[in-house]
């Protein structure tokens, strides 16, 4: 209860959810003796794959007995998930004390919720100067609260695509503008570029970082992977190749994220990551709401013997890779969909092929979501579409047959609600 109260107070310190500027973060960090200057960081920017890439790096680093701090957003089930220190998620009491201390230093000055959480992360992370910090940037990197580091070990650029366009001026809602915002201010260290969805996007990234003096490592140029048979895949870079076991997470696209994680850690010589760390680590990746299979709980009981997956993808790029995974499965696919109001709902669904049924639902506790009824009306070109007010009714209503798959998708907020309900 005490944690909820301070979170509520911090959310009221600025009239806007997002106000792109670095001044407030820098001022508050200065009051706290600039903790961001005392840490070793790997920054992760991009549109999709940031969380998965971080989790892959984290799993490998733990196998190498290297302690980590992690900062990600948004959280799925509870706010504590955003803060990992010394390989442990912060508990309610510790987080309450941390936020109270930073709140006191802020002295009721105007600052966004994400900004003050970011300062709190840096402040606590500075207590572990030898740890590796895996830091996910928020909306756009250039004016993101995390972009106040003066140096880092590496910058990882995951797949970039169209998302969060409502935060850009109408005449700048382009992938070129998003690329500029995300990569034009990367630090001079190592830059690792993940596989991109088109040659045009890759070309624009290269053009934007051309003057950056970092060591640059591009997928399919400096590193790559090949899918293999018999549950293995093959990773290769300028240091050599490794035959690797299949990871413990679903989806071909995760091999792209894992390969980027491997490339990043191998490039940073001081980490001394070896093949055994990688082989063991990628079978122990902890990933929430990224093609996560629900194998027990209230919702699984309703789905019975049918596979039940939850995935937080919410933009066209995410839909594209998700559909690629679905196409690899020989079964009927039933989608339960809930989305935020500011997303391109028709374009998101346009990437899915051969869907048996589509059920739209409301996302509870999210005033900025689109009502399930309205979402159904927007997607009325689908023949087998229906609306149900909640996940329980949706699962019960689907005419599944033996071997069918049920996928819940469209929003990380929906995924969080689903996992909490389960």
Observed structural traits:
alpha/beta; 35% helix; globular; Protein-Tyrosine Phosphatase, Chain A; 15 helices; 2 domains; UDP-N-acetylmuramoyl-L-alanine:D-glutamate ligase; 8-stranded mixed β-sheet
Structure commentary:
- The protein is of the alpha/beta class and 422 residues long.
- It has two domains: 2-281, Mur-like, catalytic domain (UDP-N-acetylmuramoyl-L-alanine:D-glutamate ligase), CATH 3.40.1190.10; 292-421, Alpha-Beta Complex (Protein-Tyrosine Phosphatase, Chain A), CATH 3.90.190.20.
- 35% of the residues lie in helices and 17% in strands.
- It is built from 15 helices and 17 strands.
- The strands form three sheets. An eight-stranded mixed beta sheet has the order 4-3-2-5-1-6-7-8, with helices on both faces. Strands 12-13-17-14-15-16 form a six-stranded mixed beta sheet.
- The model has no long low-confidence stretch (mean pLDDT 94).
Mean pLDDT reading: 94
| CATH topology category name of the largest domain | UDP-N-acetylmuramoyl-L-alanine:D-glutamate ligase
Question: Number of helix segments?
Answer: 15
* CATH architecture heading of the largest domain: 3-Layer(aba) Sandwich
């Amino acid at each position: 209860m005490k944690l909820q109260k301070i979170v509520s107070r911090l959310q009221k310190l600025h009239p806007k959810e997002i106000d792109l500027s670095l001044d407030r973060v820098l001022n508050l960090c200065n009051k706290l003796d600039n903790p961001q200057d005392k840490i070793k960081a790997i920054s992760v920017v991009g549109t999709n794959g940031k969380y998965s890439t971080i989790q892959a790096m984290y799993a490998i680093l733990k196998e190498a007995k290297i302690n980590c701090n992690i900062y990600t957003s948004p959280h799925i089930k509870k706010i504590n998930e955003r803060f990992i220190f010394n390989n442990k998620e912060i508990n309610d009491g510790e987080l309450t004390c941390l936020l109270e201390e930073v709140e006191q230093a802020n002295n009721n000055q105007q600052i966004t919720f994400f900004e003050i959480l970011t300062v709190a992360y840096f402040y606590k992370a500075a207590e572990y100067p030898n740890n590796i910090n895996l830091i996910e940037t928020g909306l756009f990197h250039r004016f993101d609260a995390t972009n106040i580091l003066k140096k880092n070990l590496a910058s990882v650029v995951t797949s970039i695509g169209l998302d969060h366009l409502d935060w850009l001026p109408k005449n700048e809602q382009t992938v070129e503008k998003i690329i500029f915002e995300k990569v034009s201010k990367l630090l001079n260290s190592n830059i690792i570029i993940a596989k991109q969805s088109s040659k045009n996007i890759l070309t624009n990234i290269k053009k934007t970082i051309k003057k950056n003096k970092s060591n640059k490592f591009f997928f399919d140029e400096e590193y790559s992977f090949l899918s293999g048979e018999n549950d293995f895949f093959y990773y290769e870079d300028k240091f050599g190749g490794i035959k690797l076991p299949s990871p413990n997470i679903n989806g071909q696209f995760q091999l792209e994220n894992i390969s980027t994680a491997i490339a990043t850690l191998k490039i940073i010589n001081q980490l001394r990551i070896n093949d055994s760390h990688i082989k063991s680590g990628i079978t122990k990746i902890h990933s929430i709401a990224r093609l996560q299979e629900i194998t027990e709980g209230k919702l699984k009981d309703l789905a019975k013997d049918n596979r039940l997956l939850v995935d937080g993808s919410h933009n066209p790029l995410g839909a594209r890779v998700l559909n690629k995974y679905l196409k690899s499965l020989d079964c009927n696919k039933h989608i339960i969909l809930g989305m935020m109001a500011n997303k391109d709902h028709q374009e998101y669904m346009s990437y899915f092929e051969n869907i048996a049924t589509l059920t739209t639902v409301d996302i509870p506790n999210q005033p900025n979501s689109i009502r399930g009824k309205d979402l159904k009306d927007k997607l009325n070109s689908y023949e087998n579409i229906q609306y149900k007010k909640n996940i329980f009714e949706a699962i019960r209503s689907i005419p599944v047959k033996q071997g069918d798959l049920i996928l819940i998708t469209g929003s990380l907020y929906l995924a969080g609600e689903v996992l909490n309900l389960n």
